[in-house]
């Protein structure tokens, strides 16, 4: 995505609890002479802030023009990940465009291939099995989180349905009351004018 030099850009990532989130990014600065983005942005860094659903800041750190950040969620929900350059230019003069390449992986686990190659076949199978078990645990957490979200949505839908039903009943009672009052008022009017 593109961003201004001092502009903060945020994304929302829905993450289950106890899940590792890894983000890789790279910043490129627009070169006005060449009319293209430079391969790197030397001297420019990114300030990364991660906020939990409880509004608690999980990560707030300054990184270089290219880097990796990671955090572990402790609450399920929408985590806000914000990126802002550390440009020292004043806002009025910071007109340079930035291109930010961002790759976020949720539930990733580090799997060291070199360690697998160094061990014998039994250990290789054992490490791969542990990695598969970690992935299964992550999928299980993800399913539980989605199940909780679906249950919350269902409860909200049922409450809304119930409220609509009661609102329809109240409207019907008001309509009947107004109708009876109009009939009584018209009857009293006709009696007073001696038309009936």
Automatic annotation (TrEMBL):
Annotated compartments: Endoplasmic reticulum membrane; Membrane
Segments forming domain GOLD: 8-106
Keyword Endoplasmic reticulum on entry: yes
Tagged with keyword Transmembrane helix: yes
GO cellular component term of the entry, any: endoplasmic reticulum membrane
Alphabetical keyword list: Endoplasmic reticulum, Membrane, Signal, Transmembrane, Transmembrane helix
Family recorded in the similarity comment: Belongs to the EMP24/GP25L family.
The name this protein goes by in its record: TMD11 protein
Classification of source organism: Eukaryota, Metazoa, Chordata, Craniata, Vertebrata
């Amino acid at each position: 995505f593109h961003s201004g030099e001092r502009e903060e850009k945020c994304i929302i990532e829905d993450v289950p609890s106890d899940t590792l989130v890894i983000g890789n990014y790279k910043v490129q600065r627009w070169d006005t002479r060449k009319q293209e983005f430079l391969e790197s942005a030397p001297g420019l860094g990114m300030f990364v802030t991660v906020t939990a659903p409880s509004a608690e800041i999980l990560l707030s750190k300054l990184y270089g023009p290219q880097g990796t950040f990671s955090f572990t969620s402790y609450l399920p929900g929408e985590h806000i990940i914000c990126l802002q350059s550390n440009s020292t230019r004043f806002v009025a003069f910071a007109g340079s465009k930035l291109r930010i390449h961002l790759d976020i992986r949720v539930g990733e686990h580090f799997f060291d291939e070199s360690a697998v190659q160094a061990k014998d076949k039994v250990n290789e199978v054992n490490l791969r099995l542990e990695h598969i078990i970690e992935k299964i645990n992550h999928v299980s957490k993800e399913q539980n989180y989605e199940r909780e979200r679906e249950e919350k949505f269902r409860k909200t839908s049922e409450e809304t349905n119930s409220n609509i039903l009661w609102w329809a009943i109240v409207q019907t009672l008001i309509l009947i009351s107004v109708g009876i009052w109009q009939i009584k008022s018209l009857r009293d009017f006709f009696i007073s004018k001696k038309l009936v």
